[in-house]
Design brief:
The structure holds two protein chains of two kinds.
Chain A lengths: L2 H20 L6 E2 L5 E8 L2 E7 L2 E6 L9 E7 L3 E2 L3 H6 L13 E13 L2 E10 L2 E14 L2 E11 L19 E11 L5
Antiparallel strand pairs in A: 1-11, 2-3, 2-11, 3-6, 4-5, 5-7, 7-8, 8-9, 9-10, 10-11
Chain B lengths: L2 H6 L9 H24 L6 H30 L12 H31 L5 E2 L3 E2 L8 H37 L3 H5 L10
Antiparallel strand pairs in B: 1-2
Helix pairs in contact in B: 2-3, 3-4, 4-5
The chains are: A mainly beta, B mainly alpha.
């Protein structure tokens, strides 16, 4: 190899290295079968647990440098279930998720902060039924073998997103606060 | 009771406690209300009214259970039992006793089966929206829907049948036998003193 070629290879390698330092970390892969996104509403004080059957997550995060990372979670709103056929049939309808017009609920992070000890704070935007709201989501990551499990919970006000309209807007029957919990199992996430 | 006493005491102050009579009518109203609410609500479409009626049905049912336990304790503790009309045939005494035993059993069984059913299908009772009652059985929807729900319903129909029989017998005593039995339980009924 000539000196000229050697110089070209060296400078290309350098460029790749510099580029890598600025690029996002390699994306982790969601393990859907072990992951879950659940929600709990209160109906006249009675807790009712539901979940979304179908969702996806795009996670590009280096836990050692979380500020460079990005998380996007996308939920298929037509897959909401509370375990009662008659209720499940209602949830995709316009008064609730309006799944035909708004098939996805999306959380897109803007900044991720590391708090140490596997704890993070993901600030971002939740878009649900045509309404977007800024949200800060606490996340805890634990790792075992090749898998990382990210868990957390937060509360949203259903009426902010018009979930349960008209006669269903009465919070004495169905409370405004909805507790959302998630457990996302990821493969390929870098070490904590 | 001798003649002097009979003149001095109004009929309504008969041998048993009017508070016990009041509890009888309170429970009668709650049980009849819960029964017809139950019949009506199961046919409703998914709506806030359906949710509200299910809640009220459960809250009233738990009230019936608690009050019936209190009533049972009270009744067992009564030293002076209610005197039945003199000259009542033995079969009627036996029927009355059997009906009352079945009543007290069903006052407890019907709400307990409802509580079991709603526990099994994962909708716990939160009494009037503030008192969370424990689940009587672990979550098991098929068991709840296929076993406990029909049992709750069947026991409620049995209780309704018994109520109808009880009411018919009471009216027969009042209107046919004219033995003044009902005026003990309904102090507002215009009636002469019991024989």
């Amino acid at each position: 190899m000539s000196a000229r070629w050697r110089g070209l290879v060296a400078s290309t390698s350098l460029a790749l290295l510099v580029g890598a330092a600025h690029a996002q970390p390699a994306p982790a892969k969601l393990v859907p079968a072990q992951s879950q996104i659940t929600f709990q509403i209160k109906q006249s004080g009675v807790p009712v647990d539901g979940r979304f059957v179908r969702f996806d997550a795009q996670v590009a995060l280096d836990p050692k440098a979380p500020q460079t990372g990005s998380v996007m979670v996308s939920i298929d709103t037509s897959s909401a279930t509370v375990g009662f056929p008659e209720s499940d049939a209602e949830l995709p309808r316009p008064a609730w998720f309006g799944a035909q017009k708004f098939p996805r609920a999306v959380f897109q992070s803007s900044t991720i902060k590391g708090l140490g000890g596997g704890r993070f704070e993901a600030a971002g935007k939740l878009t649900l039924k045509g309404t977007s709201q800024e949200l800060v989501v606490p996340v805890t990551i634990v790792q075992a073998g090749a898998l990382s499990t990210a868990t957390g919970e937060f509360v949203v006000k259903r009426l902010d997103f018009k979930i349960g309209e008209n006669e269903w807007a009465d919070v004495s029957l169905i409370a405004d606060d909805v507790r959302v919990k998630f457990k996302l199992v990821l493969s390929g996430l870098g070490p904590l | 009771m001798d003649d002097l006493e009979a003149r001095q005491l109004p009929v309504r102050c008969s041998a048993f406690d009017t508070r016990f009579v009041a509890l009888h009518w309170l429970l009668a109203a709650l049980i009849v209300g819960a029964f017809f609410t139950g019949l009506y609500m199961v046919g409703l479409v998914f709506s806030p009214l359906r949710f509200r009626l299910f809640n009220w049905h459960k809250w009233v049912g738990m009230g019936v259970l608690a009050l019936s336990l209190a009533r049972l304790g009270w009744r067992l503790g009564l030293t002076r039992k209610r005197p039945l009309p003199a000259g009542m045939p033995a079969w009627q005494l036996a029927a009355s006793r059997g009906t009352h035993l079945a009543f007290y059993a069903l006052f407890l069984i019907v709400p307990l089966l409802g509580w079991l059913y709603t526990s099994a299908v994962g909708v716990p009772v939160v009494w009037f929206g503030w008192l969370a009652l424990p689940d009587l059985t672990p979550l098991n929807k098929p068991f709840g829907d296929q076993v406990l729900k029909p049992l709750h319903s069947a026991s409620a129909y049995l209780l309704a049948g018994l109520v109808a029989l009880h009411a018919a017998a009471a009216l027969k005593h009042q209107l046919v036998d004219r033995d003044g039995l009902l005026s003990d339980m309904w102090p507002w009924w215009p009636s002469r003193s019991r024989p």
